[in-house]
């Protein structure tokens, strides 16, 4: 007996815990509406739920770019501009790009900001030295298309540093992380911000392919020296690569 198809989500709605995660344009609408909603307290919730470890992870990403001072760097899905601020501290010239008006309106950075889809950047070919992205890969509709767009806008030899969440390799830490990320984080989000958004975010990890698969996607898109590194005890991951010459 075939299962009836589920009705589409209302515009901007997030799925309940038992529903399938959205895809395609439905995902774009839901993610954009979610970040518009949580923008005012996004930084606060990040600091609380990561115990401020996210600050160090962003510094790691900027250091991993290994670019000369004064390099032009796109910060994609820039949100409120935390990575842009870190890039400025590192001596770079960032431009933030985000699809959410709410996040851009809440941004606290002196870097220029652009409202655009990171899968179709309003940037000429081979025109920037580097690109970063902080914890947004799982919110994109298609990773191969994103990596291909990165390859298009980066000059040969340009560098990328992409942050995402991860699971610790240690089984005990992984079990604790599963409880914290799946149960405690949604409660923190409900207390400080939007309950639906922070029920969705832990589940959105299911969108991510494996580490080896992502490194292979980078290679296919035109990047050499692709790496996947776990940060700290394995709560975050860092993907890096160099645009093929």
Structure description:
With 245 residues, this protein is α/β, with parallel strands linked by helices. The protein folds into two domains: 39-167 and 207-243, Rossmann fold (3-Layer(aba) Sandwich); 171-202, no CATH class. The protein has nine helices and seven strands, in the order αααβαβαββαβαααββ. It has helices at residues 24-38, 42-50, 53-65, 82-89, 101-105, 143-153, 171-192, 195-203, 211-221, and strands at residues 72-76, 93-98, 113-115, 128-134, 154-165, 223-231, 236-243. Strands 3-2-1-4-5-7-6 form a seven-stranded mixed sheet, with helices on both faces. The radius of gyration is 18 Å and the shape is globular. The model is unreliable at 1-12 (pLDDT under 50).
Task: Give the helix/strand layout.
Elements: H1 24-38, H2 42-50, H3 53-65, E1 72-76, H4 82-89, E2 93-98, H5 101-105, E3 113-115, E4 128-134, H6 143-153, E5 154-165, H7 171-192, H8 195-203, H9 211-221, E6 223-231, E7 236-243
Parallel strand pairs: 1-2, 1-4, 2-3, 4-5
Antiparallel strand pairs: 5-7, 6-7
Helix pairs in contact: 2-7, 3-4, 6-9, 7-8
Averaged pLDDT: 92
Total domain modules: 2
N-to-C terminal Cα separation, in Å?
Answer: 54 Å
How do the SSEs run, as a string of H and E?
HHHEHEHEEHEHHHEE
Q: Per CATH, what is the topology of the largest domain?
A: Rossmann fold
Name given to the CATH architecture of the largest domain: 3-Layer(aba) Sandwich
Q: Please work out how many helical segments DSSP would assign.
A: 9
What is Rg? Answer: 18 Å
Gross morphology: globular
Low-confidence stretches: 1-12
Determine the fraction of residues in helical runs and give it as a percent range: 40-55%
Helix/strand class: alpha/beta
Strand order of the largest sheet: 3-2-1-4-5-7-6
The overall strand count is 7
Strand percentage lies at 15-25%
